[in-house]
Amino acid sequence: MKISVSARYLLAxxxxxxxxxxxxxxxxxxxxxxxxGPSSDAPPAEEHRDLGDALLMPGLxxxxxxxDIDHLILDSWASGELARGHLWSEEYFRDRRExxxxxxxxxxxxxxALIQLALHGVTSFMPIASEIHSSxxxxxxxxxxxxxxxxxxxxxxxxxxxxxxxxxxxxxxGSVGVLFDEERGREGLEDAIRFLDYADGLGDPLVTGVLxxxxxxxxxxxxxxxxxxxxxxxxxxxxLHSLQGLNERALVIExxxxxxxxxxxxxxxxxxxLLIPHALFLDRHPRVHGEDRGDLARLxxxxxxxxxxxxxxxxxxxxxxxxxxYIDAGVPMALGTDSFPPDLIRGMDAGWHLAKIVEGRxxxxxxxxxxxxxxxxxxxxxxxxxxGRLAPGAQADFVxxxxxxxxxxxxxxxxxxxxxxxxxxxxxxxxxAGRTVVDDGGIPGLDTARWRRRGQELFDRMRAAxxxxxxRGRSPAELFPPVYPRAAGTGAGTGRARNASxxxxxxx
Length: 508
Fold this sequence. Notes:
Elements: E1 3-14, E2 17-29, E3 32-38, E4 47-50, E5 54-58, E6 60-66, H1 72-75, H2 80-84, E7 88-89, H3 90-95, H4 103-119, E8 122-128, H5 140-153, E9 156-159, E10 162-163, E11 166-170, E12 176-180, H6 182-202, E13 207-209, E14 212-213, H7 221-234, E15 238-239, H8 246-256, H9 260-266, E16 274-277, H10 295-302, E17 305-308, H11 310-315, H12 323-329, E18 333-335, H13 344-359, H14 367-382, E19 398-402, H15 414-421, E20 427-432, E21 435-439, H16 448-469, H17 476-479
Helix pairs in contact: 4-5, 4-16, 6-7, 13-14
């Protein structure tokens, strides 16, 4: 059945770029776009919907998508001894590693997070979760559950269990380092290979298996080499967090005798199958060498994609030293959220303005570069030219953001209006492969109040567990002091919901 969707504004695709259409329509059938252009020329359809004052655009592609409970709200403002308390202690690494959540609770964490992705207009995602509240990393069964949740919601998922050989630890000598359990790393890779086979066996075009090793400093050379071999032999994508911090750089040089970029290259990972979240600390960064010694050109020549996460970087006090330099060098740029909220609209806003500050001029970067990164750049990183654009033959993955509320302000260019004045919470419609995921701003049948309670319950448990990992055993109130001191006679105010009970996605 042919279905058409119209809106006041449409971001369609012609030739090699997005183009804005006033009063535009998308027509799709069997999950594929048949037409994207002016409503006046749209072919007839059996079912039609007019969204009115809205921007209809390609679905957002989040390649560092939070699949966890928010922890940035706890640790993005801490440094020194407080920051050390957010890491594992040596004692915890040696003697008491444990899962904070049961297996079913971990699935609820994933369900909660994927619901958030959908509600924020994300149609394609590659997950990222913190390992700090697990006994090690992720396992096969956990990703099977996430795949099932994603399939129920109708998202396009690129999945694999995260694996690592080591973990960042607050060492007893006062420094921060990495302690290793190489057998756990090998087991994790085995689970990752097993999941690749599982994903292939599903035969579901919305689930693709990928390799998701953790941070580069937590991987042994053996694990890096094996990851590269499997990626090469099976032609699967690898995402590896790297080039994201000075401590990482120092640890990699200490353990491997080369920089992180050299290590990626030497291990055979630096190529067009690689996605690198962050990639902030190249030689040109002011806190590395402060001059371009060839890293940027080398990165561009490799074809590896950078997953830029500007909102998260900003919250941790970092920024890409020159977004336009990466673009001009030809580095493929995609976007990720990496934390809560999974809001790529706010991410584009943060990135656009950070680039102006860093470059020292208002015309330093085009807003279209960020929109391209959230759509076309993500598609390129995934090697999926059939997503990230609204054109005949592409997948019917699209999202609409409402612009009709008084609080949205006046209309100028709809992209500038949305990104400067709004957020991804204005998502009113999301469609993936022709299936409606979000309708009228919500997931049909979802008990939002129940999931709000459940999310808070899981967060409270995660927050409380930090005390058991802290080398000094400090309470949550000490590790996470409030913005203002609490009034005398008031409680801790954790916000824990009473009588909250687990809810499965089938209860939508």
